[in-house]
Amino acid sequence: MVDVIKNTQIHCTYGCKSSKAVQPDVAGKMISKAKRPLFIVGSQILKDEELLKRSIEIAKKADLPVAATGHSMSGLVDQGINAKYINVHALATYLCDPNWTGLDGSGQYDTIVVLGHFKYYIDQVLSGLKSFSKIKSIAIEREYIQNATMSFGNITPAVHIEALDELIDNL
Amino acid sequence: MVDVIKNTQIHCTYGCKSSKAVQPDVAGKMISKAKRPLFIVGSQILKDEELLKRSIEIAKKADLPVAATGHSMSGLVDQGINAKYINVHALATYLCDPNWTGLDGSGQYDTIVVLGHFKYYIDQVLSGLKSFSKIKSIAIEREYIQNATMSFGNITPAVHIEALDELIDNL
Amino acid sequence: MSELTTGKFSMAISDLENVQITINNIVGAIEKEADEIDVEMGPTVKPGVSSLRDWDHNILERYNPVYTPMCDQCCYCTFGPCDLSGNKEGACGIDLAGHNAREFMLRVITGAAAHSGHGRHLLHHLIGLYGKDHPLDVGATNIIAPNVQLVTGVSPKTLGDLDSVLSYVEEQITQLLAAVHVGQEGASIDFESKALHGGMIDHVGMEISDIAQISCLDFPKSDDEAPLADIGMGCLDASKPTLIVIGHNVAAVTDIIDYMEEKGLNDKIELGGLCCTALDMTRYKTGDRTLPRAKVVGTLAKELKTIRSGIPDVIIVDEQCIRADVLKEASKLMIPVITTNDKVMYGLKDRSNDSIEDILEDLTTGKEKGALMFDYVKLGELAPRLTMMMSEIRKQKGIKALPTDEELKELADKCVHCLKCEVACPNSLPISEAMTALSEGDLSNFEVLHDQCIACGRCEFACPKDIDIVNVIEKSSQRVISEEVGKVRVGRGPISDPEIREEGVNLVLGTTPGIVALVGCSNYPDGTRDLFTIADEMLRRSYIVVVSGCSAMDLGMYKGEDGMTLYEKYPARFKSGGLLNTGSCVSNAHITGAVIKVASIFAQKNISGNYEEIADYTLNRVGAVGVAWGAYSQKAASIGTGCSRLGIPVILGPHGSKYRRALIAKPYEEDKWSVYDARNGSKMQIPAAPDYLLTTAETVEEMMPMLAKSCIRPSDNNMGRMIKLTHYIELSQKYLGIMPEDWYKFVRTETDLPLAKREKLLKILEKEHGWEIDWKRKKILSGPAMKSDVSAQPTNLKRLCKEA
Amino acid sequence: MSELTTGKFSMAISDLENVQITINNIVGAIEKEADEIDVEMGPTVKPGVSSLRDWDHNILERYNPVYTPMCDQCCYCTFGPCDLSGNKEGACGIDLAGHNAREFMLRVITGAAAHSGHGRHLLHHLIGLYGKDHPLDVGATNIIAPNVQLVTGVSPKTLGDLDSVLSYVEEQITQLLAAVHVGQEGASIDFESKALHGGMIDHVGMEISDIAQISCLDFPKSDDEAPLADIGMGCLDASKPTLIVIGHNVAAVTDIIDYMEEKGLNDKIELGGLCCTALDMTRYKTGDRTLPRAKVVGTLAKELKTIRSGIPDVIIVDEQCIRADVLKEASKLMIPVITTNDKVMYGLKDRSNDSIEDILEDLTTGKEKGALMFDYVKLGELAPRLTMMMSEIRKQKGIKALPTDEELKELADKCVHCLKCEVACPNSLPISEAMTALSEGDLSNFEVLHDQCIACGRCEFACPKDIDIVNVIEKSSQRVISEEVGKVRVGRGPISDPEIREEGVNLVLGTTPGIVALVGCSNYPDGTRDLFTIADEMLRRSYIVVVSGCSAMDLGMYKGEDGMTLYEKYPARFKSGGLLNTGSCVSNAHITGAVIKVASIFAQKNISGNYEEIADYTLNRVGAVGVAWGAYSQKAASIGTGCSRLGIPVILGPHGSKYRRALIAKPYEEDKWSVYDARNGSKMQIPAAPDYLLTTAETVEEMMPMLAKSCIRPSDNNMGRMIKLTHYIELSQKYLGIMPEDWYKFVRTETDLPLAKREKLLKILEKEHGWEIDWKRKKILSGPAMKSDVSAQPTNLKRLCKEA
């Protein structure tokens, strides 16, 4: 098993409440079990083909609707997944609104999974969700995302890919 | 063994660097091993006779010089220990000064042990030491002191007394 | 042009023939004129941010800035958050020391802005009512505004004169706030200088606020026999319709008092106040020593408790020190809230232009939870009428506030003793134990906690069982609360010139052992009673005790064994053994004002624009010490920092460490403890006291000897030093059980020694410190580090020395 | 009294016979006079904190404050730290939303204070040199100060007129800072209103700063052919003695330039600047289009790199955006630092009153690391002379800065690839990989990082091997740096009235697709080149691109395929396809100024004290959007927030999320997307654009279609809508690979559709959205939610409606 939960403590910079470090197998199972999940994929997936591939695979295998933020959409079109472009800051706003019916009109989400974002940006965006919503967030980035509910730690790109593969196995 | 390291995470309120939770036996051994230790005893020991007793016992058994802060001195006079009154805020200032020669003129300290303080006050005082000195601080309070180098967690008064006894056994 | 003054003037046109005038220059001309009128003008008239920097660096050389960060990161800009732990640099290059100095400075100017923002509001309001030419009158003094004059060189005579001084204050605050911006100051020492500047400016802002209201609202004017007011939660008559006012700015309330008086409602409505508005309500129209119209409920710490009691029928808030959840809490109990100041608006609809009837309709039906009202005349009528109506309505609806006895027991039984409340409690109060006792029917633990609890409510958010812990404390303490009935002296305003003239010499020579100013807020480490203990002890020892704001209130809550409050027992005069309440938070300026006046009146120093010299005089010769035992607010940081620059040491309670920065000297750095003798520029050793300018103490007991030591000054004559040393030694023995270690360092000659103990002390000096004693004449032959020379003129400033 | 104006006036004494004058009233009278002179005065002349609250609540109803806290606790007062996570309340009763609104407000007023504090310094300096009566002249305009006039009703004519406006600004900032104090505002919505007030005030402060310096220092005055200046680290001639100036306030530097010119040193000394002082140095004395005397090195992101290069022989700093470690870093390389402003003093000795020779002695011998100098005439001589001397000395001493090639390799080999640097890096840059490549002799990774790296230095503090990573990046990128030679248009100042007259109609009808203002700092997510990409794209599409400050600099660093910078390629005129640099950070006021002038000149709206109406006009009719892609500072937050209140949407780069608060609307809340038609007060549906007032974008690619959409306004005519929609669709397809989901929502009629795609789009409308199409006439029969009616007068304000 790959260890992805190291180096979490030193980044406790946002105050009292920090995300729980999570291993890929557990993250995978949690994603599978979510009732109304949303996969939020950022534009950093375009910087690494392996990452892009995994993103698509996760969406497909777990049948996750995808919120394509930034310009990640340009890598996700015509890939046979249910992806829609949305600005991530706006998305987080809507996610805090119980009246929002989601990208597909079927209602608010209960779990979000984030991948492919700038660390600092997704951390900020999630800080809003952490404080003003009850949505569970699972960060499967290669950096520790303190404001997620659960997060991988700080790992190398190579370990990250390995971890995502393990996660996919557990979907 | 008494568990004194629970409830540490939720008090990570001072930023990036938090104290390490420590068990009483380990703390005891560390105190014994210190080259130039100082036992900083606050006035809260006067609120509980059991605590006062343990304070004196620790000072005696480990032969620790005592900085009696607040009005703790009134409980420490004529107890056969080497205690001197000093204001804890001033003390912390001197502790950050490499030129200070200590309460006895023999030079700066390397390890301090704190007991009997208001949680918030000692946490502040230690935040200065944490940032501006290399002195190691061991908090054996019944509250988790985030800015110490090592600290007990948040425990009940009864468990605290038990823990101090265990610490004393390990001196 | 001789008629030109800074106030109103009439021009004889003939004088001005053939003169071209540019408006801005007229104003300039007048300022110059003012300068000329004054005999002498010091070097720093309206000092800028750097003008007094040399003085700051001078005192900071001895009094080291000590940082105890609240957080080891910075999150000011989008480079961050930056981890500065271990004094690392952040992305902009600032290190933890620099950032903390900046953080402290920001607290200081926030406090200064609160006071001067208050002053601006008040001044605008009062000028609107009384005109710019309304004369300033604060009692028997030639120095109406010592802080204003010291800093700006202006001797204001009218309300209008305060306007430009306030603009100066606002300019300085803006300059200081600018320096908070990322990429400005890089050196902590210069952030310190800026903080000191902000503190100084704060006293100007406070002074303006208070002299404006004293002059217009018939407050006591330097009155040493101001009346007494009722204080305490217990003094509210809950059977009457109750109107509660919370905040710091009396502007909105005067119209209510007037309306009630006019309509004969004084006996029909209970009018109570929390925080400084309460104090200023008692000052309103008591210049003639008639009894105050309003009752004082207490400080910020009583706000939540007062609301939770359900007693208020209407709440008015103005500004400062108001709990942010007043509207939320009040609404739960159907208490309408009226906001009256743009600093606190709670999102409420502005009803200033609506008819009173419409507003009454909306509030009594609960359609609106409150209203924003800037029209104070309208408010004057609205508030009392609404109170009468709400009282009826709330009675009819049977609004239930605190739990019943049964419910109380149930709540206690619900407790699972997880300790989360205690961890959340800012004072780590033993709630869990008290719950156990309560379950067994014993209220006493909670009765004790009631005094220690500041009713912040953090425990309730922490409780996994949703126990309303504040309610539990309050309900359990009903007996104690009903006995909270005390007296507070109505704020007297400034110290008069005759008082200074009488007492100045005693202070400078030390024969009056010192001034102890108990100021600041109600965030006490161990309950409000501590204040009584301090004042009682120091008054018995003939110190002058000056109080203001929250401290003035809490001090009045306790009675001695004789059943009297200290206010009833000690004279309100500025003299040895006097207990003076200057007034509300902004009245703190009269305490520094008194010190400035000592230099002016007793020592005949010019004070106009002469800050450095006066501060130097204070530091070296005036034995005054401030105590902000319950300091919580940024205003307290600001007031204290103003004292630091002026050379007055201040001790804070342990919570004060959370201001992040103290100024602490090192007695062991012996070269730091000398000054010049202004007579000839020679160096002279001085005692290491005060050994801080801003510090904290752990307990009241620890602070007692600190207070005595802090009043020791180089200028003490032998009698003075003897008196001060006696108190230092006695207080140390009484509260710490020991002789102070350093007592001998303050001895210059045998006559400095306490008479009763002289022989014994001489023996110790000989034996333990190796001093030579002539036992026959009982004289010290050698040993002291300092000489005794009452005519020496100690100063930190070389420029003031004759041969320099 | 007809001669009374707000400016200079001469009184004929005979006119005044038998008149009693109270000085303060004269000033009052003049203000009134000013009011009367203006044809019309709006309802909010010098608005207080709550005066525009209704407008704020109006826009906040649609544009929700969105909080993304940087920290879930509060540490303002000594009750704290309080855990507010999960929106809990702290000890004072404030919750996380309230606290974050307050935190944001504090950032805004910090920025506003920085600008207006700068303005105060500058104004004081310039009045000292040129007098209060010096006329304001900013070029061809009747509205010299649109922001000042809009907010305060004052039309300033002289330097002196700016003085009282600045006092108003300082009063407002103090009032807002007061509200930061604990126990003040309890509702986040009213902190929002206060933040918006602070943002508005900021534009007044900025405007004052810039029009003062334009009027006095021979800057270009609304010049659409201002010259070009050299920019880039590569343009410094390291062989010459080099004097580098860092900061934002040109006051201190003008004397240096004058001295150098007078002594013929222009060719002998390399004078370069970093940050806005650099920009303003290039504006100095270029009003006649002569070439600038100074070179621009770059933004804040180049400060550490410039120092580390060892090239500067002397560094002068003034204020704002200066790394806090300049003195520390410079000292290591024997570069003396001169501070010149009380906002940044670095603890250095004040040498203002010392002789130049003494100072030269102390600095050249290294006895002092730097000096504080407030005497700018002295500085003018000191700095160039010191530069010449230090150049010699530093050469002789063989000061070594960057590592040699060998050392570089050694440094790379030392790396243990622990990733700590990457974790510390604000942009998570792949340093570890680059080290590996470097070890193998490949510099290219670091060359790429050089553009992305903001040289903050956090990595170096994190490195367990003490590798000077910034030096490694810089040394590795010497080739790239040497090629950093670009051109930047010298700041032109305001947009002239003729330009507005010409372009206003196109903007309001949409036929010029929009104004894109690229402003703010250099904290880019992915390097400086992004700015070029944005501007290039938008200019090709005939948007007006306006730039200022850091953005203006970085934009000039890149060349297109034709080898030209965009400045060289596009006209500097306010017209479709124009690229305008207004100037430095304070010149941002000219961008809002231009928008205000559109309302004034094109729509003939009164602007004096008429804020709400103009903001409403802007929001509904002027297709302008701000981009602060590298926003890092509190000033950027403040500028952006001023835009928010004025109805101009602003997009920040992803780092901007760390300002903690955005204003984001919900397009799915359909009831929020309607306004009144001022012709009759009826409601009209409007497109959901802009759908934010302040938000962030993840990447430049994402932002491109956002920009186009953000310029869509209800007032677009069909041609205008068609043009805007075309760009929206094309940019979405180009950068996201898809048609935007909501494109059809902006279609009111077939003529709104892009001509080239009309048929195809009509088909989609029919098929996917169920619209009815008359295929014969190619007309839409039903479907659109909105009507197309160019004569409609969309407004959010009921009071402006005729039948309201």
Automatic annotation (TrEMBL), chains A, B:
What's one GO BP annotation on this UniProt entry? methanogenesis, from acetate
Q: Which domain of life is it from?
A: Archaea
The metabolic or biological pathway listed in the UniProt record of this protein is: One-carbon metabolism; methanogenesis from acetate
Keyword Heme belongs to the record: no
Task: List, alphabetically, the InterPro entries matched.
Answer: CdhB, DHS-like_NAD/FAD-binding_dom
Q: Which residues form the signal peptide?
A: none
Keywords for this protein: Methanogenesis
Supply the SUPFAM superfamilies for this chain. DHS-like NAD/FAD-binding domain
- Keyword Mitochondrion set for record: no
Q: Briefly, what is this protein's role?
A: Part of a complex that catalyzes the reversible cleavage of acetyl-CoA, allowing growth on acetate as sole source of carbon and energy. The alpha-epsilon subcomponent functions as a carbon monoxide dehydrogenase. The precise role of the epsilon subunit is unclear; it may have a stabilizing role within the alpha(2)epsilon(2) component and/or be involved in electron transfer to FAD during a potential FAD-mediated CO oxidation.
Tell me the protein family, please.
Belongs to the CdhB family.
Q: Could you tell me which NCBIfam families the record lists for this protein?
A: cdhB
Q: Report quaternary structure and partners.
A: Heterotetramer of two alpha and two epsilon subunits. The ACDS complex is made up of alpha, epsilon, beta, gamma and delta subunits with a probable stoichiometry of (alpha(2)epsilon(2))(4)-beta(8)-(gamma(1)delta(1))(8).
UniProt-recorded name of the protein: Acetyl-CoA decarbonylase/synthase complex subunit epsilon
Give the organism, scientific name. Answer: Methanococcoides alaskense
From TrEMBL, chains C, D:
What InterPro entries does UniProt report for this protein, alphabetically? 4Fe4S_Fe-S-bd, 4Fe4S_Fe_S_CS, CdhA, HCP/CODH, Prismane-like_a/b-sand, Prismane-like_sf
Q: Which EC numbers characterise this protein's activity in its record?
A: 1.2.7.4
Name the coenzymes or cofactors required. [4Fe-4S] cluster; [Ni-4Fe-4S] cluster
Q: Which UniProt keywords apply?
A: 4Fe-4S, Iron, Iron-sulfur, Metal-binding, Methanogenesis, Nickel, Oxidoreductase, Repeat
Task: Specify which residues bind [4Fe-4S] cluster 1 according to the UniProt entry for this protein.
Answer: C71, C75
- The entry's CO-binding residues are H115
A molecular-function term among this protein's GO annotations: hydroxylamine reductase activity
Q: Where does [4Fe-4S] cluster 4 bind?
A: C425, C453, C456, C459
Please give the Pfam families that the UniProt record associates with this protein: Prismane
- What reaction is this protein's catalytic activity? CO + 2 oxidized [2Fe-2S]-[ferredoxin] + H2O = 2 reduced [2Fe-2S]-[ferredoxin] + CO2 + 2 H(+)
Provide the binding site for [4Fe-4S] cluster 3: C415, C418, C421, C463
Chain positions recorded as [4Fe-4S] cluster 2 binding sites? C74, C77, C82, C92
Which of the seven top EC classes does this enzyme belong to? oxidoreductase
Where does the 4Fe-4S ferredoxin-type domain lie? 406-434, 444-475
Q: What superkingdom heads the lineage?
A: Archaea
- Cofactor binding remark: Binds 7 [4Fe-4S] clusters per heterotetramer.
Involved pathway(s)? One-carbon metabolism; methanogenesis from acetate
Question: Which Gene3D superfamilies does the UniProt record give?
Answer: 3.30.70.20, 3.40.50.2030, Carbon monoxide dehydrogenase alpha subunit. Chain M, domain 1
Which BP terms does GO give this entry? acetyl-CoA metabolic process; methanogenesis, from acetate; response to hydrogen peroxide
Which residues take part in binding [Ni-4Fe-4S] cluster?
A: H248, C276, C321, C521, C550, C585
Assembly with partners or alone: Heterotetramer of two alpha and two epsilon subunits. The ACDS complex is made up of alpha, epsilon, beta, gamma and delta subunits with a probable stoichiometry of (alpha(2)epsilon(2))(4)-beta(8)-(gamma(1)delta(1))(8).
| Domain remark in the UniProt entry | Cluster B is an all-cysteinyl-liganded 4Fe-4S cluster; cluster C is a mixed Ni-Fe-S cluster which is the active site of CO oxidation. Cluster D is also an all-cysteinyl-liganded 4Fe-4S cluster that bridges the two subunits of the CODH dimer. Contains two additional 4Fe-4S clusters, dubbed E and F, that probably transport electrons from ferredoxin to the B cluster.
Record family assignment: Belongs to the Ni-containing carbon monoxide dehydrogenase family.
The task this protein performs is described as: Part of the ACDS complex that catalyzes the reversible cleavage of acetyl-CoA, allowing growth on acetate as sole source of carbon and energy. The alpha-epsilon subcomponent functions as a carbon monoxide dehydrogenase.
| Protein name listed in UniProt | Acetyl-CoA decarbonylase/synthase complex subunit alpha
Q: Lineage of the source organism?
A: Archaea, Methanobacteriati, Methanobacteriota, Stenosarchaea group, Methanomicrobia
What is this protein's gene name? Answer: cdhA
